[in-house]
């Protein structure tokens, strides 16, 4: 190894050769002032949050213990899908739904960007583990970053530090994750609170299982254990090894007779996973406990059932709309402190506020760091960015299921797919069988949200809520889903359901009250599994009548529930050409079974 005179570089708490040589190589390329090997301790958290406060990036929140407010650059607020790349050797392996570049070309472009990109900054080396550290084969990663915000966020979102590097020993496999905000600090230049670069790249090399990210400090672009590793790289690994890496929450549902079912649900970004995962049921005697709110890794167990593990350690949740009525358990989790709030508004007395939260503070500092009054809100300027987020530890959640970090995972009884659709898609439908369920997932559609940059509201296909996260060809991904179902014992497979909390009446209001009331739909779902609930055959699946749902004590118009459940053949016929067009975009890798399912749907619609 070259003798580089960078302070801290040689203080490596490891003899792992591959790790050491990669860290040296990156230090040589990016030229930081100093290298810090992160140990994941409270002292490290205190030191770095202190540094972030001094830099003006963080503002402490006296009303919340050990919690901080943070505002990003206004142009760095969400995932950048058009700047996200899958650099497989063969373009066909990335498929039509991903941006592709030749890996060698991409490396050459990004190497030029990284050259000297950490000048004047500290380079942090963060050993982390996705999923329990006591797994048979822990899933290690190491993120190199020049952002203190990333380090402290990784403390919350993943298992980090000394215990990880010790467990890695001298030869464990790991995913190298390179991140730079791309804002070198030259002599005499003053830093900004949120350094970033106009040029952004979020890049994945699936064959090498490597991630390179440049230019952004935002969550999904910069906390590389999350979407980059646990979905894009992991989905590619899962295909090779016969498992699933999915954009799913995991919850535990207990009935009044203490019957337990675990449910996994895939909804696109900002479409209700965190809320469902922490749901407070409105029907007596039912209980929901949380195991995860964003990502599920699922493998078949010896008994043939599908077992889910949440690879994360924290919640990176959408703030707007979160309140004591919609998601009281998120509010309780945040009250315990130890949290980072990004792009929400700050009150004069040191608390946070966002649209949809209780109270109507008169004077706020908006996410744009400007004075804000309700008049600004009326003028269309929100106090919090629509994709503002809280970052908070899982173990503070009052309804966390005790088995949430069991390396064996939990056996899944039902998989839900759902999107945000104002029309057409009923409140709930059960798939006829696994392959039909895969078709429902593969054709899932949703209105775009603020979680990614671009136009909000436009309906797009978002297969299995994974459109931005499938690390390989989407057609091959559907085939992988179909194949797993074929290999498995049909009786042990989870049953698949399609839900839509977001259907609207002609006057534009939501037909279904949602949130805690979704427990009524969960109840019908598990009663279907146990053979205790009725459903009607429709063209799109098995749908309950309003009388099959438990609506006791619910103050809602019967006509609205019926409209929410309706399967309108006319509306669905209009969907057919859209599905056809979607399947055409996938290209030759689309499984023929998906065309068969489409033909069967067309026939049922007459
Ligand atoms: P990501 O973290 O981006 O993956 O999002 P998510 O799927 O976890 O979405 P989340 O639960 O944070 O919800 C996003 C938005 O949808 C919030 O503003 C919620 O208040 C709103 N929402 C969630 N569930 C419901 C529901 O049942 N009905 C309605 N109308 N809105 C909901
Ligand atoms: C999402 O966008 O689906 C999120 C937030 O969960 S991010 O970490 O930015 O991907
Ligand atoms: Mn998500």
TrEMBL record:
Pathway: Carbohydrate biosynthesis; gluconeogenesis. The active site is at residue 271. PROSITE patterns: PEPCK_GTP. Keywords: Cytoplasm, Decarboxylase, Gluconeogenesis, GTP-binding, Kinase, Lyase, Manganese, Metal-binding, Nucleotide-binding, Pyruvate, Transferase. It holds the Pfam family PEPCK_GTP. GO terms for biological process: cellular response to glucose stimulus; gluconeogenesis; glycerol biosynthetic process from pyruvate; oxaloacetate metabolic process; propionate catabolic process; response to lipid; response to starvation. It is found in: Cytoplasm. GTP binds at residues 270-275, 389, 420, 515-518. Its main location: cytoplasm. Mn(2+) binds at residues 227, 247, 294. Its EC number is 4.1.1.32. The keyword Ion transport does not apply. Its cofactor is Mn(2+). Binds 1 Mn(2+) ion per subunit. HAMAP family: PEPCK_GTP. Catalyzes the conversion of oxaloacetate (OAA) to phosphoenolpyruvate (PEP), the rate-limiting step in the metabolic pathway that produces glucose from lactate and other precursors derived from the citric acid cycle. This is Phosphoenolpyruvate carboxykinase [GTP]. It comes from Actinoalloteichus hoggarensis. The lineage of its organism: Bacteria, Bacillati, Actinomycetota, Actinomycetes, Pseudonocardiales. The gene is pckG.
């Amino acid at each position: 190894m070259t003798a580089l005179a960078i302070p801290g570089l040689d203080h490596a708490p490891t003899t792992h050769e591959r790790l050491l040589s990669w860290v040296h190589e990156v230090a040589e390329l990016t030229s930081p002032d100093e290298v810090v090997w992160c140990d994941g301790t409270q002292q490290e958290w205190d030191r770095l949050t202190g540094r972030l406060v001094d830099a003006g990036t963080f503002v402490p929140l006296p009303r919340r213990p050990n919690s901080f407010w943070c505002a990003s650059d206004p142009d760095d607020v969400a995932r950048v899908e058009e700047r996200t790349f899958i650099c497989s050797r063969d373009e066909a392996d990335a498929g039509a739904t991903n941006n592709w570049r030749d890996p060698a070309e991409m490396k050459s472009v990004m190497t030029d960007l990284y050259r000297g990109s950490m000048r004047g900054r500290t380079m942090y080396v963060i050993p982390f583990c996705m999923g329990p550290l006591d797994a048979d084969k822990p899933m290690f990663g190491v993120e190199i970053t020049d952002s203190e915000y990333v380090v402290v966020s990784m403390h919350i979102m993943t298992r980090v530090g000394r215990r990880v590097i010790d467990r890695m020993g001298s030869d464990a496999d790991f995913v190298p994750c390179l991140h730079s905000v791309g804002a070198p600090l030259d002599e005499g230049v003053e830093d900004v609170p949120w350094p970033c670069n106009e040029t952004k790249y979020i890049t994945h090399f699936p064959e090498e299982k490597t991630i390179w990210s440049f230019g952004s400090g935002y969550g999904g672009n910069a906390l590389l254990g999350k979407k980059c590793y646990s979905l894009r790289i992991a989905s590619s690994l899962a295909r090779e090894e016969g498992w699933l890496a999915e954009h799913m929450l995991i919850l535990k549902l207990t009935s009044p007779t203490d019957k337990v079912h675990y449910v996994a649900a895939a909804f696109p970004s900002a479409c209700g996973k965190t809320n469902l995962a922490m749901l407070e049921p409105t029907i007596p005697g039912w209980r929901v406990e949380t195991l995860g709110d964003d990502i599920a890794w699922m493998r078949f167990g010896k008994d043939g059932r599908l077992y889910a593990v949440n690879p994360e350690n924290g919640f990176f949740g959408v703030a707007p709309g979160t309140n004591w009525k919609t998601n009281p358990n998120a509010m309780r989790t945040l009250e315990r402190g130890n949290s980072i709030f990004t792009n929400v508004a700050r009150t004069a007395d040191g608390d946070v506020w966002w649209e949809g939260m209780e109270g109507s503070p008169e004077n706020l500092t908006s996410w744009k760091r400007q004075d804000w009054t309700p008049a600004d809100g009326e003028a269309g300027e929100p106090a919090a960015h629509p994709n503002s987020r809280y970052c908070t530890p899982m173990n503070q959640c009052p309804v966390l299921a005790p088995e949430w970090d069991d390396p064996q995972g939990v056996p899944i009884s039902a998989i839900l797919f759902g999107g945000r659709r104002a029309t057409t898609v009923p409140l709930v439908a059960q798939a006829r069988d696994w392959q039909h369920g895969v078709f429902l997932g593969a054709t899932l559609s949703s209105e775009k949200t603020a979680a990614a940059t671009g136009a909000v509201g436009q309906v797009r296909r978002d297969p299995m809520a994974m459109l931005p996260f499938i690390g390989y060809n989407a057609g091959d991904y559907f085939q992988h889903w179909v194949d797993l179902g074929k290999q498995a014992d049909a009786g042990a497979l989870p049953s698949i359901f399609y839900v839509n909390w977001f259907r609207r009446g002609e006057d534009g209001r939501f037909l279904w009250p949602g949130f805690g009331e979704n427990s009524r739909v969960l109840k019908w779902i598990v009663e279907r599994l146990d053979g205790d609930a009725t459903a009607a055959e429709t063209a799109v699946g098995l749908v309950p009548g309003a009388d099959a749902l438990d609506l006791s004590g619910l103050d809602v118009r019967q006509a609205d529930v019926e409209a929410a459940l309706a399967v309108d053949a006319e509306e669905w016929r209009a969907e057919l050409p859209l599905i056809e067009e979607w399947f055409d975009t996938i290209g030759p890798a689309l499984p023929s079974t998906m065309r068969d399912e489409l033909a069967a749907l067309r026939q049922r619609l007459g």
